[in-house]
């Protein structure tokens, strides 16, 4: 890998005069707000989730499936795909829910007035507190769980937008950013590995929102699901406790369901474009689309 364009000179004031971001160039822009008017669909359930089957999106759909598995019928939800590659996150309806135009976003319609919640960590805490699950109510256990939840919120951008972008998506390979973010990704994996050496789950002995938040990102790397070749490049076999934990979480039935909700790419057998009922998992959206084409 080369060093990139070492002759680049910083302008005094940055100007947005050309697309950047590789395959995401068409949706990257330095301003916020809606680009077009479009209302979001609303289903019949108390919760309306607008998301995509990315690591950030998986956190919330896994949480819903875990709540339903525990018998919380009030956690029934409709999950609608927001195709970020097509710019659907910039619709007026979505911006009304999340002015930051990032998935996932949630509307709680169980009460007299709809409540919007955006940012995946905020959604996990909201649901955990509403249903009294996966987040201790008080004490050191709550503090530990929240600390690890927010560790993920602060750390994952270095793994995704940093390492993942320059390793997998940037239009050219540059040695400096790949080295910079590979080092940080391995440091983070080492943090988790040391923690999991003495704990079954991230926050201690109990499965929690911390695991739901961290697993889609770091479990994905450990199991080879993220960024083709990254598991070899980062030598993830060195992190045996992370791999043990990642496999343990992956076997949970609710995780198997939640990780494919709003997934629109990859293996068709692991895609459920929309989720409106538990029976939807028996009939993948991709299969329905194929049938409807005949």
Quick gist of this model?
By secondary structure, this protein is of the alpha+beta class.
Summarize the topology:
Blueprint: E1 47-51, H1 55-69, E2 77-81, H2 92-97, E3 105-108, E4 115-118, H3 120-131, H4 139-169, H5 175-196, H6 209-222, H7 230-233, H8 240-250, H9 253-258, H10 285-292
Parallel strand pairs: 1-2
Antiparallel strand pairs: 1-3, 3-4
Helix pairs in contact: 1-3, 1-6, 4-5, 4-6, 5-8, 6-8
Summary keywords:
disordered C terminus; alpha+beta; Glutathione S-transferase Yfyf (Class Pi), Chain A, domain 2; 4 strands; 294 residues; four-stranded mixed sheet
Structure, described:
The protein is of the alpha+beta class and 294 residues long. It has a domain of 120 residues: Glutathione S-transferase Yfyf (Class Pi), Chain A, domain 2, CATH 1.20.1050. It is built from ten helices and four strands. Helix 1 links the parallel strand 1 and strand 2. Helix 1 packs across helix 6 and helix 4 packs parallel to helix 6. It is globular, with a radius of gyration of 20 Å. The C terminus is likely disordered.
